Amino acid sequence: MSSPAQDEFYMQRALSLAAATTALTSPNPQVGCVLVRDGEVLGEGAHLYDLYDHAEIVALKQAASRGISTQCATAYVTLEPCSHHGRTGPCADALIAAGVSRVVVATCDPNPLVSGRGIEKLRAAGIDVTTGVLQQQARELNEAFAHFISTRNPFVTLKAALSLDGRLAPPPASRFSGEPFWITGLAARREVHLLRHAADAILTGIGTVLADDPKLTDRSNVVGPNGEPRRRPLLRVVLDTHLRIPLNSYLVRSAATSPAHGSDLLVLTSTAAPTHRIATLVSRNVDVETIPEHAGRLSLPAALATLAERNILSVLLESGCHLNGAFLRQNLVDKAVLFYSQIEIGEQGIPFAHGIASPYQFEQTLHHVTRELVDPDARVTGYLREPWPQA
Predict the structure, then answer these.
(1) Is 50 exceeded by the pLDDT of residue 236?
(2) What was the pLDDT predicted at 318?
(3) Peptide bond just before 376 cis, omega within 30 deg
(4) What is the spatial distance between Cα 40 and Cα 37, in angstroms, rounded to a whole number?
(5) What count of other Cβ atoms lies within 10 Å of the Cβ of residue 180?
(6) Which of 32, 33, 152, 273 is close enough to 243 for a disulfide, judged by CB 3.0 to 4.6 Å?
């Protein structure tokens, strides 16, 4: 019989396998599996969306390829084995057929329609099931998937780089138009690219595009240890009510399309947008969609619904004070990641979010807050709502 320490050891290994699949599984969850018997790893693996097989099947196939029986083995799985037919058959059935005697599950399936059914099927087959081993780590890994599968809305993370006195940038009059103003250091900027790498889409407003001419690209291949591959391109999304995005902006000039994924630049606009502008942007590989307005501005819930239709599970909001404020006022932000530098900008600088006195005041509304040093800057991470249902 395995000890709690052994269970955590092998579950940590399964979690490491799952974590290595960042940006390679969406819209499916990141899942790892390790098969063990008498202290020997028989097979292990993780799910990759393009290869179909779930983590349990990958591990079972690895054991079979080595001519190893999995009878009486223990399976460590970071997410409850599925019990239904989807793109593949039920993993619970595969584990039963493989003769495993015990299954250790980090966390249950977040889908309220199927949660617990895989565990029930395993127990009905006489398999010993242990749940909740390193549950919090497993849930953090799949918070976007859990939120999406239970709400059908993308998980929105607001990211902001701020001065010590809570400003996004100096006043426009003191800046060069079209050039970004770096507040934080290189280490924090590397962390931002890892956040982008983990997201399906990055969203900003036309004001940020006109002021900074940003790239909004995933450059984790520069800062990551292994090239940080992606299954599908990071979707860059711009909210632009009157379609003012410049044709010579970096976003438009770099827009690219692929047969499998379409354009990597989506501009959401209103029905009043000039048709000739739409046609010109489309001819330059830009995807343009019209969405409803609310109070003279694009409807943010409609924007998120449009992204949900594209199976965008996670959105990184990198914008200015007006869009930050609008998302927060409408309760559309799920998580916040704030980077603070050591510089001060002054009262004339651009605030964190319109309608919020300071980011320090905003922090008081967060829960499960963590604070860490990203030398020489600091990062504060917290949640506005629980991503997992009934958590």
Answers:
(1) yes
(2) 97
(3) yes
(4) 5
(5) 15
(6) 273
Helices assigned H by DSSP within 165-296: 186-198, 206-212, 220-223, 250-254, 275-283
Contact 196, 311 (CB under 8 A): no
β-pair type (377-383, 335-340): antiparallel
Among the listed residues 48, 47, 49, 44, the one whose alpha carbon sits nearest the alpha carbon of residue 33: 44
- Written as six digits, the tokens of 218 are 């995933």
Distance in angstroms (rounded) separating the CA atoms of residues 1 and 11: 15
Rounded CA separation 313/138 (Å): 17
State residue 187 phi and psi, 5-degree precision: -60, -45
Q: How far apart are CA 295 and CA 39, in angstroms?
A: 63
Enumerate the H helices of the chain as residue ranges.
Answer: 4-19, 55-65, 91-97, 117-124, 135-141, 143-151, 186-198, 206-212, 220-223, 250-254, 275-283, 300-309, 321-329, 359-363
Tens of pLDDT, residue by residue over 309-343, are 999 999 999 999 999 999 999 999 999 999 999 99
**Would you please indicate which residues are annotated as catalytic (active-site) residues?**
56
Instruction: Assess whether the previous peptide bond of 225 is cis (omega < 30° from 0).
Output: no
Say if residues 44 and 14 touch (Cβ distance below 8 Å). yes
Report which listed range, 82-96, 102-116, 328-342, is most confident. Answer: 328-342
Distance CA 391, CA 368 (A): 12
Count CA within 13 A, CB hemisphere, residue 305. Answer: 8
Bridge partners (DSSP) of residue 298 are: 293
